[in-house]
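Translate sequence into structure tokens.
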Amino acid sequence: MAVSRYEGPSLRALSWRAVAAGLVVVAAGTVGLVFWLLDVAGDDPARRLDAIRTAFTAGLTTGGTLALLLTARRQWLQERTQIHSEHVAEDNAERAERIAAANLHDANERRTTELYIKAADQLGSVKAPVRLAGLYALERLGQEDPRQRQMVAKIVCSYLRMPPSAFASRPISSSASGDDLAALQDGELEGRAELEVRKAAQGLLTEHLSPGNAELHWPEVDAVDLTGAHLEDFSLQRASLKSLTLNNATFVGESWFTEIACDLLLVQGVTVRGPIDFRGATLNGNAWFAGSRFEASVRFNTDEFFAGTHFVGFASFRGCAFDGRANFSGARLSGGADFTGSRFEPGLGDPGFGEVIVENPVMESPEVGHDRSVWPEGWSMVTGASGSARLRRRRRRSSHQTLEG
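Result follows.
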């Protein structure tokens, strides 16, 4: 319990000389009172005895009062001394706690710095197991200290942005020497080992950015930058991010972004060589897919498992090449879209634009010029009486007629 500090006037210590002077004054006063009362009492013995008794009673009373005052003063001084001692102890304890906290903070900072330096050295090793050890050391650091999680994610993303160190395979001629064969085999082994390291790095992001396991989820990570990364079988399902940058990345295998929530999505100039899935995603800000090439299927549609992708902001598919099946059926466009120059491979099925929900038909692009939405070639927007809008395929009635909705 906190003790209030005494802030009143301080008392000076009494000297023995002062105490003796006080006793002399009391004794002198008592003697003087005796002589005065005897003089008043006259020669009557009974009255003279009462006078002496009264004088000594008054003296004892005065002395007792002074003793009581001295005792009270001593008690007051003892209480003030106790309070001062308690405050000194509190101040010393607080100072010790601050020093201990500062020492602990410094020790943690030094340990964190040492772990970062060691992990960076390990990630730069030519040996794949050492690089894996560096990744797992960073993961442990982020798991133990939430303040470091965004930095750990940045380092992992930086590693994935570096070009893979796999050696390109080359044909073996009949005249190849033993040294050439050994070098080629070593290069292939290093390539496979590097792939395992990169998949471990991808798995670290997948595991800690998806909220499926509360103990492993890192909600402190809100920005991921994988510009130019080479990603294989990549997944960020159900992740919640403020920004996700995948510009100029290459996706191989299956890629999963189902039910992701993202404020700003940058997927410009990517090459997707396997199926990629955005079903159930909520893109709260603008989404930029411009200049990307989808060589396999891409899904934004709704089905029995997921809702269609919700483009809350503007969606740009300018100059995209859909070489595989694209499915937009049931997607929601709340902020407009731009399909200028986008190309869909014919013969791969209906991309489902007839089932796209256009919530704001007059939405403009946030880019310079603020152009209106541009729909895929052969499609136009029709607004109903209720204000709802749908995309409708334009058809040619005859070779001499213009296109109609």
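Note: The two ends are 81 Å apart (CA to CA).
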